[in-house]
Each structure stands twice: as C-alpha cells, then as structure tokens.
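// run 5 | inverse folding | seed 20
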C-alpha cells in the first residue's frame, strides 16, 4: 500500500547523521563547538534523532588517530549535551566486528544515549542478533542497519530479514551503502522490508548515499512506500558522495514541527566553510563507483591524490579494467 505523502505523517521521524557519517571524512576529529552546534540545530529544528558517532573498539581504531566521536565515551557526549533535557534522542552506531559492545555499551541507566544502531554485513548476522539483544536488554531502542544490500543476494537478504524480524530491533533500515540503487529498487526493497517487519511491529528506515545524486529522490521514494525513519545530514556531509541533505528533506516534509531556518543558518555558518577543507559530494569518481555498484574506497583514494583528483578518464579506465 502506498503511504500518503501529500500531507505529513506524524509517525515519520528524521535522524541526523552529520557527526557519525560525516566523521568518516576526517576520522571524527570534529571540534566540540561544531558538535554542539549540530546538537543545538537539531533541537531547534525539531529533528527526532541525532547520531553523535560510533561506539568503535579502541583496540581496532587507535585513539591517537581518531576523534572522540569514533568512540562516544559517556564523558565526551555529556560534555556536549549535558543530560540532554530535550525531546531530541541521541544515537550511536555499533558496527559488528568493530565494537567491544559487551563492555563499551553501558546500561541505559548509565548513559545519555537513547538508541543503538547496529550496522552489519549479511555474513555478520549471528553477531548482529547478539548485539541487538544485548543493547535491548540494556534498555536501548535498537535498529538494524544491513549494509551493502546492493551486492547482497535476494536469498541472503530475505533470510536476514526473516531473522531480524524476530529480534527486538524497533527498525530495520534500507541502507544504500554504495549509492547504487534507483527509485524502482528502493520501492521493491522498502515493500520487502515492510513485509517482514510489520508482522512484528517494526518500522522501516532508509539511509541513502548520494553517488548518483539520488539520495534525496530515493529517500522520498522510501517515504512514499511507507518508510517512517529517514536519515539525512547537514549539507549532505558523509563518506564519499555524502548523504541525503537535511535541508532538502525537511523542505520536502510537511510536518509543522520541523523548522528549516535553523538548518539553513547552520549550513551557512558551518558547512559552507567546512566544504573548503573537507571533500564530499557527488563528484565524478563517486558517480562511477555508484554506477558500477562498487564500494567508494577507490574513489576516495583517487580524490585524496592531488595528481589524480578529477582525472575522470584515468579513473574510469582503471575502474573498468577491474570489472
């Protein structure tokens, strides 16, 4: 059934992933003032969730090479938000295989976090179920973010959805990791996720990447077909091509609780200057990896090389030689 979108759906909620996904560009080395500005903007704009970073293992990711938002230690979060006496819910992402989740994710009574988002590849499903159960038992809302679905077989996907539907995760998220999906595929996936999720009372979310400049369009498509949890970031900041821009998403949604002016102010004051220092957006290299349904790591490496950056013909030739 197609969901109404001419008016607003009060059950539709928006998550800001500026710090978590954007931090993949600079190893999460954001200054406190920037993180606080994102937080204040989310509160003022009426955003529902703010993903403040990862709960990554300090054994796997050296603390001297990453900022605080790679780990989201409680003291660091509270330094920014205090007790978070606002309606905004705070989230952190825990990657399967990269998180010491048994020890580093505290009980909800000890944390200002509200939600743990478990991210995983299909071969990590067993650990993922354990992570979801652990976070739920500790008192958190939990979401399941299955990555790289554009290269996951239907059989594997459907088996994973069947398993996830029986976990206490509140939401299962359609994640277009490579920015390779088109609207028709988003429709099929959202309907399939709903088919499995609704039977056990789960919401469906969407996290779109902008390699082919379709993150906003794909987010709209997901909303039309019933996704009630939508990710976006300020000015679309994120790994590689980035994410759905928050200012576009909020401009599309018709819920009067959302306020767009604070977002434009933040983009003007922080994102435009930051874009001169950090590299993200749907550049040609990312367009190609999206078209070829490949991880953007090769495009990220090419754009980090001043001699290779923007030599699209050279990048294309090397890309197709590996296909």
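// decoded
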């Amino acid at each position: 059934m197609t969901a109404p979108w001419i008016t607003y759906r009060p059950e539709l909620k928006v998550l800001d992933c500026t710090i978590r996904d954007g931090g993949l560009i600079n190893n999460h080395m954001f200054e406190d003032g920037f993180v606080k500005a994102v937080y204040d903007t989310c509160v003022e704009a009426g955003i529902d969730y703010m993903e403040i970073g990862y709960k990554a293992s300090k054994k796997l990711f050296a603390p001297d090479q990453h900022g605080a938002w790679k780990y989201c230690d409680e003291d660091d979060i509270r330094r920014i938000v205090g007790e978070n006496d606002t309606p905004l819910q705070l989230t952190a992402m825990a990657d399967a295989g990269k998180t010491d989740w048994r020890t580093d994710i505290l009980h909800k009574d000890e944390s200002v976090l509200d939600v743990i988002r478990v991210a995983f590849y299909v071969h990590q499903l067993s650990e993922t179920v354990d992570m979801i159960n652990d976070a739920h038992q500790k008192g958190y809302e939990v979401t399941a973010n299955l990555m790289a679905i554009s290269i996951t077989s239907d059989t594997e996907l459907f088996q994973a959805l069947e398993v996830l539907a029986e976990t206490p995760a509140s939401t299962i998220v359609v994640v277009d990791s490579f920015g390779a999906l088109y609207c028709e595929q988003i429709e099929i996936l959202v309907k399939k996720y709903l088919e499995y999720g609704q039977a056990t009372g789960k919401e469906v979310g969407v996290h779109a990447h902008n390699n082919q400049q379709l993150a906003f369009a794909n987010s709209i498509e997901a909303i039309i077909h019933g996704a009630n949890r939508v990710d976006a970031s300020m000015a679309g900041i994120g790994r590689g091509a980035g994410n759905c821009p928050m200012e576009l998403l909020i401009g599309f949604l018709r819920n009067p609780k959302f306020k767009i002016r604070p977002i434009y102010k933040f983009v003007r004051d922080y994102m435009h200057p930051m874009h001169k220092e950090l590299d993200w957006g749907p550049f040609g290299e990312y367009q190609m990896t999206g078209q070829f349904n490949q991880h953007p790591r090769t495009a990220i490496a090419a754009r980090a090389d001043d001699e290779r950056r923007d030599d699209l013909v050279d990048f294309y030739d090397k890309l197709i030689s590996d296909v």
